[in-house]
Design a protein that fits this description.
Elements (H helix, E strand, L loop, with lengths): L1 E8 L2 E8 L1 H18 L12 H31 L9 E5 L8 E8 L13 E5 L5 H14 L2 E4 L11 E10 L2 E11 L11 H4 L10 E6 L13 E15 L5 H7 L5 H35 L6 H18 L13 H28 L5 H15 L3 H10 L3 H20 L1 E5 L31
Parallel strand pairs: 5-11
Antiparallel strand pairs: 1-2, 2-4, 3-4, 6-10, 7-8, 7-10, 9-10
Length: 457
Amino acid sequence: MQVRIEDVSPVEKKMFVEIPWDTVNQKLGNAYRELGKGVALKGFRKGKVPRPVLEQVYGQRVNYEVMNELVRESFFKANQEHNLAAVAEPRVEDFQAIKKGQPFTFQAVIEVRGAVEPTDYRGLEIEKRRLDVKEEAVDEALKTLVREHTELKPIEGRETTQAGDILGLSVTGTIGEHQINQPQFALDLEDEEREPVPGMRAALTGVPINLKDKDLEIQIPDDWKDESVKGRTANLKVTILEARMKDVPALDDELAKDTGKAETLDGLKAVLRKELEAKETETIDREAREGVLRELIKKNQIPVAASLTERAVEMQFRRLRQMLGMKPERGTPGLTDDLREKMRPAASDEVRGQLLLEAIADKEGLKVSPDEITAHIEQTAKARNVAPAKLRAEWQRDGRLDNVEYSLRQEKVLQFLVGQAKITEVEKLTQQGQPLPEGGPDHGEEGHVHGPDCDHG
């Protein structure tokens, strides 16, 4: 077999292949022998059909299958011998049909990763928000704790509902053209934010606790937050299945002790502030990593193979469906050509960022040690309340450990870039950073982003 490789672009190469007739003929012979074992034609016993007859009946199909096999084998051999770093199957552009006694020749374009030489990645200019947890945030955290420690008790001493009650409802009817059938529905008469229909809380405040089949007609304002129902009329039939009153704890030292976080209210506030600051610090650090990734990509617009971009588009589409709570589907039937076109720029940048981070890791000698992998497994296992050994065995069995190491390495590069960056502290970011891969270092989770050569999601 003769193979010649020519450069077409930084991410494409052209392969010219000539396969001698002897090789082609041997492949044909093997194909017809396998075919003949299971073929039964009229006038011949199974397995006894002469090759000339098989050629007459199945020749076109066998030639097609042999050509595909020759292309695959040639591609595999060329990819190894020439270190092509191919990222997709070859795209055959020109070939000669198989002819007896003649070599089989074809030309194919191969998409490759291409050489990545990152530049200007030290001293990237980024913004970083100052850590500033307002007192209002601490107060809101206290309110959340109060709600968590609020008990719901049966209503005694009154016959009607009042603000603060929690109602279990059965609701049927319509909102505009939408049919409503909620056999069990909870409504907090004090929670305006989660009110499903404006005016529903007021309509069910001061009504009998044993209310049955009450008709409600509510006009939903044109500026209501839910686009699908705003401006429509709700015609509902409501039955109260259960009513409970809230037993709200006092905001005092006893509450602090009940939470297990502190002995006094002041101590609880201090703990909550510390927790909020730790969470906010994580967010600020993530924003900084997103910022350096954005600037890195801006300064290194390296070419990206089309197949890698298309793969990233499909993975982003699947992640989007998952975020929206949509069921998984075979393939990507909902990914239209127009949507693909809109998603390609961001998908190309996602791949570009991964390739650049990998190249910087190689250039700077950044590696992930076995101890770091072990620490990550232990941290993840603790969060899931499983044994670290069990989680490691699961990831090893599913082939995820390499993906975990890959993601941890990219995370290490991002931290390196932030450490080298020129940082301006600000109250509020003026630019959005490049989104980091979904799932972070935990490549064992659904929705993860594998390396640029990964072809599964």
